[in-house]
Design a protein that fits this description.
Strands 2-1-3-4 form a 4-stranded antiparallel sheet. About 65% of the residues lie in helices and about 5% in strands. Strand 3 (about 35) and strand 4 (about 45) form a beta hairpin. Helix 4 crosses helix 14 (about 275-295) and helix 9 (about 190-210) packs antiparallel against helix 11 (about 225-230). The protein is built from 14 helices and 6 strands. It folds into 2 domains: about 1-65, Dna Ligase, domain 1 (2-Layer Sandwich); about 70-295, no CATH class. With about 300 residues, it is an alpha+beta fold. The radius of gyration is 23 Å and the shape is elongated.
């Protein structure tokens, strides 16, 4: 009998050798998985146990266990890239089809939770917003609506940051759970909230000043949240890296963001509930673009 450390770093067992052999065949364990034999005091990788050598040699290595080479952020900043918008959208649709109900269900939970918070925040500015829509413009009403919008940005960042990480894990073939979709509240809540607050304030100022600066910054910071979650960067470092990289092909990323918005809007038109399908299509496509630019690359054959 053996105890085993799972991919989630939790201890399982005792389990039999036959169960472990089956897990290897299914790709749930590999040569680097740590096990502890009954009566032993130390943990060793499965590859150190000769009784599993035959099945380890025969088992295919899942794609997410294939050796990868991380691209340094300096390489990303110094190099160039191309984003194939059509490919991002196609790959997004294929990924959604393979994981349809988990993705749709988890996306729906996140969007409903974020929408609920939005409704609560909206209570503080609803009257002011209604007055503005009737043409009763005043500095106080504009201030109330603006403050509510700005305060909502950190909250949205916490929800969207986790959802981005969930999509990235699916893209990379890693185990992805509902916990990942809400991990913005646990992994980097302060930095994510600061990204939302800083981008909300600065984009608003840019739009009020001349509109164009606000549009530029809104697109330039498209990858700030996933950089915080994926690369564990501070909020300003993530915003600056995103801005510098996106600026190289700003119009290309603008086209991608417009497509993401159009796809998501199509779900709203389709009786609103369709957004739970179209939202992940658009934003998984965005994360494919992010991963193509900032992610990992397989080592080249020489």
């Amino acid at each position: 009998m053996y105890k085993i450390i799972g991919a989630d770093q939790k201890e399982y067992g005792p389990v039999s050798a036959q169960e472990i052999r089956q897990w290897i065949i299914e790709g749930r364990a590999n040569g680097q998985t740590l096990v502890q034999a009954e009566g032993a005091t130390n943990w060793q990788p499965l590859s150190a146990h000769p009784e599993f050598a035959d099945v380890l040699n025969a088992a295919p290595i899942p794609s997410f266990l294939q050796p990868t080479r991380s691209r340094s952020l300096d390489d990303v900043l110094a190099g160039d890239y191309q984003v194939d918008i059509g490919s991002c959208l196609t790959r997004s649709w294929e990924l959604l089809k393979k994981n349809f109900w988990p993705v749709v269900g988890i996306t729906a939970l996140v969007l409903i939770a974020a929408g609920g918070i939005n409704q609560i925040l909206g209570l503080f500015s609803r009257t002011a917003m209604q007055d503005l829509m009737r043409g009763e413009v005043s500095g106080l009403r504009i201030f109330m609506v603006s403050i509510t919008m700005i305060l909502g940005m950190p909250v949205y960042s916490l929800f969207y940051g986790g959802l981005y990480l969930y999509y990235l894990k699916l893209i990379r073939g890693e185990p992805a759970t509902i916990g990942d979709a809400f991990s913005g509240f646990t992994i980097a809540p302060v930095q994510l909230a600061l990204v939302g607050l800083a981008t909300g304030i600065l984009v608003l100022i840019g739009c009020l000043a001349c509109l164009i600066p606000g549009i530029y910054l809104g697109i330039a910071w498209a990858f700030a949240m996933p950089l915080v979650m994926d690369k564990q960067l501070g909020f300003w470092q993530a915003m600056e890296l995103s801005r510098k990289v996106v600026t190289k092909h700003w119009f290309m990323i603008l086209g991608l963001m417009l497509l993401v918005g159009l796809v998501s809007a199509a779900g709203i038109i389709a009786c609103c509930i369709g957004i739970f399908v179209t939202f992940p299509i658009g934003y998984i496509a965005l994360m494919y673009a992010y991963d193509d630019i900032f992610g990992t690359s397989k080592p080249q054959n020489h």
